[in-house]
Task: structure prediction
Amino acid sequence: MGSLEHRADEHRQSGSARTEDRYGTRPGARGPNADPVGLPATPRPVGRTDLTVLLGRTVLEARVQQICREYGLRPRSGEAVGSGLSRSYLSRESGVELAADAHGLVTTIFLHFHGADGFTAFQGEIPGGAGGVPRRTHLWAMLGHPDEQGEPHRDRRRVAVGPWDRWVLAGFALHAQFAPDAEQLERVTLSLPDRFPHAA
Result:
């Protein structure tokens, strides 16, 4: 028996037992890493700066300016009256928008996921250890049960609005707004814990 086991081991090492390796894949067949739920086929970029480091810092700081350049964030409306600072910075190409107060302190960061308002879907890690998959079940798996939740409803124009979840994490709050299907992530709002929005 020892010789049969030896020959089987040699066969496993020298040749592949996978059908795809011997005959190729069927046209239209999913690859081994294809996503069955329709998530983006391209991997989300990693290694970019965590945007939460901007919260509570002034847009005049060199490090904040560097991060704004990294994400392609540009002033939205030019100079604000009186302060000379823009109150809003955005990058439609990165799916990122941020708001600052009259003194230039970054108060809120928005990550767009569904291409609304001309934004490309945000590509990257969702801050707070939420991972890179823009789905409600994934956020719950990564962050646990949310601290607060809101039910789906219809807005004043009778448009369906999905539910929302909010987590208060170390140093910031993460507010996730979902599509009416209650699964697809539409937008993440990051803010300081004492300034997080109370209405979706």
Q: What stands out?
A: Residues 47-190 form one domain.
